[in-house]
Structure prediction request, 1073 residues.
Amino acid sequence: MAAVTTRKDSPPMLLALERLTKVYRTAEVETTALHEVDVHIKEGEFVAIMGPSGCGKSTLLNIIGMLDVPSTGRYLFRGDDVAGQSEARLARIRKQNIGFVFQSFNLIDELTVEGNVELALLYHRISAAERKRRVQEVMDRMQIAHRAGHFPTALSGGQQQRVAIARAVVSSPALILADEPTGNLDSQHGDAVMKLLQELNADGTTIVMVTHSAAHASCARRSINLFDGKVVTESLRAAS
Amino acid sequence: MLRNYIATALRNLVKHRLYSAINIGGLALGLAACLLILLFVRDELSYDRWLPNADRIANLEVTFIVPGREPLQFAQSPGPAKAVLEADFSSDVERAVRVFQPSQPVRVGDRQFTEEVSYVDPGFFEVFDLPMVEGEREGALASSDTVILSQRTAAKYFGDQSPIGKVITVDSKVDLRVVGVLRDLPANTHLDLDLIALFDIKRYSDNPSVAESWTGANAYTYVLFRTPEAIARVEAELPGMVKRNVVLDIPGFKNADISQILRLDLMPVLDIHLYAHKPGYAKPGGDIAAVYAFSAIAALILLIACINFVNLATARSMKRAREVAVRKVVGATRRQIMAQHLGEAVLTACVALILALALVELALAPFNAFLHKELTLDFLSDPTLLFISLGLVGVVGVLGGLYPAIYLSRFRPARVLKANQSSASGSPRFRNALVVFQFAISIGLIVSTAVVYVQTIYARTIDLGFDTADVLVVDAIEDMPDPQQRETFKKEVAALPGVRRAALSSDTPPLHDMENTLMFRTPVPGTERLLIEQMSVDVDFFHLYGVVPLAGRLFSRDFPGDVRTIPDDPAVEATESLIVNETFLARLGIPRAQDAIGKTLWDLIDVTDKNHSERLARATIVGVVPDMHLRSLRTEIAPLLFYLRDGSRGFGNLSVQVEPGRTAEVQRGIAAIWQRLAPSVPIRTSFIDQDIAAQYDAEEQRAQTFAAFAVFAVLIACLGLFGLASFAAERRTKEIGLRKVLGASVFDIVRLLVWQFSRPVLLANLIAWPAAFYFMSKWLSGFRYAIDLTAPLTLIGLFGGAGLIAVAIAWSTVAGHAARVARSSPIHALRCE
Prediction:
């Protein structure tokens, strides 16, 4: 693929994966999860990653989210190569730039809704009053403020996912990575979550979402299809 | 952030109650045991530290080295040493004082007491700067008819009245006027001072060994040095001082190198309680080995509790994995995750400490009663204790929390969060290794406790070589003012209904004093000197104690020559009969008891008697008796000879053999006779079997303390095992369900789980046995007569027994869980996963 070029009037590149390969090795088996993948995502994009089970979608998302490291290849995040960075440095980049939404919500059962949302700000240098303000604001926006004192186990799946999204956006990240965010939800709640993600994207947040659902993928401007660890097609959708 | 951490920690504690209870309970037990031991150890180490100038005071001890027998050691020292020390080392020695401390009858009005009276040299209060509550302390030692009482003694004698000016009668003949009251000494001192009066050596002119002889050791000599360093300097010079100043006016010793025979040592007062081992100190001392042993036990118990913490935390790490992963996803660094989990461990330890303090408070009263101590847990008056407690919490928190913190913080969030999967729950091999270690400690402690117990029982039940049943001893009959009364007393007691026999002797087992005589093989004293321990008995003594001679005969009235006869004419030979023990025969080189009968030795008699100095008596062996354990089993049986005495001089105790069941009646009879014959002297009686058993009180007390802490250790280890078992049962629910679907019975499943936890315990035995064998062999080597650890029955009984106990405890701990899981429906089990 040609080198990444940016036209003056187009948004700047947020991240670029170049010839990126991820191999998992155990004592007996070597599995190639991603093979020389090239992906470029600009600021403000909404990208859906699709493909059958085991094609490497989640691996790709984890590497983009710096939760995993590539075996070979380059990963440029805002122009910096982060492929070989230390765990502490990756943690810093992650907390400043990336929010996560998972299929299984991954809320901490021991913390209240408010505590879970606040968690994403705890590791930033933000005063308690400012944290409180931002948590309240995002809870209002996600319509979960009335459940602030409840524990996750007392909420419906849709509410739990809204808490998870609130946690992902409270630190105002440039990028939200969503791993099958509607996978555990019924269609009504699933649609609501997609609406939220579209609103966030409309506000300028870049969103990369892994999904099985063609309907939900259609919310994205671009789809990347993976098969056996390789990008097989990329399709652009006209802005709605 | 802290609030978030604390909220997570507390909710985790509450949510997983069982694990929290095990962790906190185990840590609390461990901390409580640790604190109790710490209080004990601190008290043991605090002895005499409060004493002004303690680092400059030392006690002079003496050892008499005589070829062919164990050295004779005494906490007291020869009387002349004081003056010589002051004169020879005036630049280093500020002051030396003697303290002569006989046990004497004290009469106050019409009441009688037996007390240790401390007769001290002037200058005593320069060495021991002890505070008074009333009166003048210096003035008290200016004359020989005044006395200072301790607060405790003053209250005992005079209640609330001021004792000043009151008169007490000591030793039935000396009136002393009370001129001062000494503040009671704290419990942590080796000193025992209740009555202090001037050491007036004129009173002992008829018994020069008290204050004037280099061969006697009756008074303590305390030396105040100018600097602490001077103690070692002067001690190095003591052999030279002995050489320069000591002349032994005893045949056979005149040309000997005296420093090879008489050795003086300085025991710093700060070391007396824990390190002094020479007999004669006023109070039973501590034992530095026990301090080390108990400190080690405290550390081991705490380690076991920490291992529980590590094991449960890593085993259950899967439960925390998601939380760690989410925190990492939102930007927490590894260091922050570690800090959080270390903080949780410290928080858990803090909760445990609160519980432990309550436990210590509850246990302190019985612990004190048991150890005869006055230990307190008071943070206000002793802030160091608070720091130590908090320090313990820190150590436990870090020790227990570090590995789980490192382990948890290593989780890769991508793996953990994928489809909500948990990460591996730590290495089971590592946990098993820790369980092996815990149980190795527990089994080691069980074996050690068992060995100490068996040795104590052995010491109490060993054939001592004489009968002790139903024998009552009337102690200190030499306190009877009139010597003639002792014989009368014996006759009247022997005639009491219920009394089988009565016998007089210089001492009774367990022997307290040690009297020796010097023997020679020839009438002309040569270089071979036999310094032999002696006892004086009457004709009934051996019969009363059921001693049968191996050869020859016992003393008898039919042989008047058995009693020593000393003709007035020095030219005529003095004679006496001897009964000797087997060890004495060995010393003489006579293999068969029969061959010793009729043998003659030459006995140096009355060396202190100016008229008959250096007179030798022809001593004929008329009987050989078996060796008897007259002292503690810690001491070796020494060569011993018995003299027959007639009359009552030289007798200190009366042994009374009572018909079974008539003890109380006989005791009343004896008391009535004593009251009539010696109304001014309090009577002291005891049972000989109890006196002998009392020698092992310290060992037994130690064994019981050991046992208590061993139980602690096992309990805490079992708590951990219980937690791991419930974890394993929970974790293997699906596997067990599948096994049941495939046809496994409840018994099969229980066996599977029980075996899983038996293996580490069985393995622990292999580590514990050699270690316990090594340490207990060392401990037993302190006894001259001890159980044989290498005997197959002992080995199997003690070591195998301890192993079985540990396995049985482990089984009963995990079997409940195993049975519950095994009985549950497989459908439920499979749905669980």
About this structure: The first helix of chain B runs from residue 2 to 15.
